[in-house]
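Fold it.
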Amino acid sequence: MPAGIGNANADWMGSLPTKLSSMPLKHLAVPGSHDSFTYWVDVHAPVGPDQKTYVQYLASMFSVLAKKVMVKWSMTQNLSFMEQLDAGIRYFDLRVSSKPSEPGKEIYFIHGLFGHKVRDGLREINFCLGRHRKEVVFLDFNHYYAMKAEHHHYLILMLQEVFGRKLCNNCSVESITLDYLWENNYQVIVFYHHPSANDTPNMWPGNKIPAPWANTTEPYKLIQFLETTLEERNKQGSFHVSQAILTPRPNTVAKGLVWGLRNYLVERNLPTIMSWVEAQRPGVGGVNIITSDFVELTDFANIVIKLNNLLLCERDGRSR
């Protein structure tokens, strides 16, 4: 069984000592997943509107073959939301779309190909949170496709209906500690990167969770970028996402066509990336949320969670 699978970290937030639960959440190390919903995509649906026109054209011309290739390069996770939560993942990177050819306002996850209905994914997360009342998740809705005002209204209402009083209202990031969230029975912080949610108290604006993107296939360039953006991290007013991921370019896909993202790009570079992760420190000026592809391939979540022990030692040292 891969190291990242299991439920050893299902209650890791609730198990933190008081010294850490009383610390601003923006100073804790939190494991997250990139394109969190891609563990299943629908090869029978049309190619998504997030793809360039020529990709949509090729997929329509060479449907079965093109979609087999797209699956290999669209999937960045193997674990379901429930499995990710059990493994300790607490930040979810979410991209959503309507189906332009479908009547109604239904919203789906999307990354090249359509995934599950958003409502089904949210219910799965909510079910898990109901069983683990001290765990808190960040839901980062950062890309929207083929969505009009009525779609956004539908999605915001859906989030409110599914999570109800678990939703934490937008407020000062510095005031958000696990103690504060537990005291108010909050378990969900939703970031909604669209003006439609500007006047909705329990939707947080995207600028409170910057996630700089390296957009490179080279691990050493990625690490240099992660270091630079950490140095530039906002001292106040926001959480911070370090995207420890490599991004394929068209020529990368062409060279590794039959292998796919995991086999061609991710696995061979994971040791270098994980060495960087293991060397990090949370706290002021340090890492906060770190995201990865295929979180089960290494002991990713556990490594990130254990970084918080450095804060505990640091605070113990100061108190003597």
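The first helix runs from residue 18 to 21.
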